[in-house]
C-alpha cells in the first residue's frame, strides 16, 4: 500500500501513545480517519488534534475486549466512509508481576485487550477488506516482548507472543488466498509512551480491587518503578509514525525499532534449535 490520500484508516488505542502518532501520520497523508479508544476524554483530544491538522475524522469510544464494540466500530466506519483501507490494531495494556502473584482479573484484562482485541479486529475488518478487493494493510501492535521473554512479565509476554503468532498465521492465510490485504506486526522496544499509566483505562469489570494484597506488595511496586524507568528512558516517540508508514509502503511484515535487541532475538532462536535451557543470566 503506497497511496494513502483519501483512503480510510481505523486506529484502536488512539487516545495515547502510538495511536496518536499513527493518527497524526494519517492526517499528514490526507487520509480519512476513524479513531477508537476506551477513554472518551483521550479520544476527544486526539480527534481535536488531527481535525486541526485538516483530517476528516470520527471518534468511536470502543472497548476492544468486547467483540460487539469492535463490530460496532467496523459498522460505523463503513457507514461513515464506505471502506476501510488501513487498520491499526493498536490498543494494549500491561500489569507487571509473576504469574503466581498476578491477580486473575489482571490476566483476564491483559488477554482481553492484547489478544482478544487483536483477534476481534481481524475478525471484524478482514471480511470488509476482502470484499473490497482493493489494496489494504493491517498493522498489529505487538512488542519486542513478543519476540523475547524476560522475568516477571509473564502475562504481557504471553499476550505479545500471541499477537506475533496470530499475525503470522493470518498473514499466511491472506497469502494463500492471494488477497490484496497485506499485514505487519509492530514490535517496538522501549519508547516514551504512557503505557505504564494504563490502569486508568480499565473498564469497570476489570477494576482493581483495593483490598487485593498484590497492589500493596513490593513485587507490584517494584514492577511499576521498573516500567516507569524503562519507558521514560526509551527512545522518543515522534519518529514512530513515519517509520511505521515507511514499513507499510515497503510491505515489511516485522517492524522493529531497536536493532540492539536483534542479537538477543537471534540467540533465543539459536538456543531453541540447540536445546539450550533459557537462563535468567541472559538479563544480567
Automatic annotation (TrEMBL):
Cited NCBIfam families: PRK06194.1
Gene3D superfamilies for this protein: NAD(P)-binding Rossmann-like Domain
Name under which the protein is recorded: Short-chain dehydrogenase
GO molecular function: oxidoreductase activity, acting on the CH-OH group of donors, NAD or NADP as acceptor
PANTHER family: PKSB (PTHR24322), RETINOL DEHYDROGENASE 10 (PTHR24322:SF736)
CDD domains: SDR_c (cd05233)
Lineage, opening ranks: Bacteria, Bacillati, Bacillota, Bacilli, Bacillales
SUPFAM superfamilies: NAD(P)-binding Rossmann-fold domains
Record-stated family: Belongs to the short-chain dehydrogenases/reductases (SDR) family.
Keywords: Oxidoreductase
Amino acid at each position: 500500500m503506497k497511496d494513502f490520500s483519501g483512503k480510510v484508516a481505523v486506529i484502536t488505542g488512539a487516545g495515547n501513545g502510538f495511536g496518536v502518532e499513527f493518527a497524526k501520520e494519517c492526517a499528514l497523508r490526507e487520509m480519512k480517519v476513524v479513531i477508537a479508544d476506551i477513554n472518551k476524554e483521550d479520544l476527544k483530544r486526539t480527534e481535536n488534534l488531527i481535525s486541526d491538522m485538516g483530517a476528516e475524522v470520527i471518534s468511536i469510544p470502543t472497548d476492544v475486549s468486547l467483540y460487539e464494540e469492535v463490530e460496532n466500530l467496523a459498522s460505523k466506519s463503513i457507514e461513515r466512509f464506505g471502506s476501510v483501507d488501513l487498520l491499526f490494531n493498536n490498543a494494549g495494556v500491561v500489569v507487571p508481576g509473576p504469574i503466581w502473584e498476578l491477580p486473575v482479573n489482571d490476566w483476564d484484562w491483559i488477554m482481553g485487550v492484547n489478544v482478544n482485541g487483536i483477534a476481534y479486529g481481524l475478525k471484524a475488518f478482514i471480511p470488509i477488506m476482502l470484499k473490497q478487493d482493493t489494496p489494504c494493510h493491517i498493522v498489529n501492535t505487538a512488542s519486542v516482548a513478543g519476540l523475547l521473554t524476560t522475568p516477571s512479565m509473564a502475562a504481557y509476554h504471553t499476550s505479545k507472543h500471541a499477537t506475533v503468532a496470530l499475525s503470522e498465521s493470518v498473514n499466511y492465510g491472506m497469502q494463500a488466498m492471494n488477497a490484496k490485504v497485506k499485514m505487519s506486526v509492530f514490535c517496538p522496544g522501549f519508547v516514551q509512551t504512557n503505557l505504564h499509566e494504563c490502569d486508568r483505562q480499565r473498564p469497570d469489570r476489570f477494576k482493581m480491587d483495593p483490598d487485593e494484597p498484590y497492589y500493596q506488595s513490593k513485587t507490584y511496586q517494584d514492577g511499576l518503578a521498573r516500567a516507569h524507568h524503562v519507558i521514560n528512558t526509551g527512545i522518543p516517540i515522534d519518529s514512530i509514525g513515519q517509520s511505521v508508514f515507511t514499513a507499510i509502503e515497503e510491505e515489511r511484515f516485522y517492524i522493529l525499532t531497536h536493532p540492539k535487541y536483534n542479537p538477543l532475538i537471534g540467540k533465543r532462536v539459536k538456543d531453541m534449535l540447540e536445546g539450550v535451557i533459557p537462563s535468567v543470566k541472559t538479563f544480567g
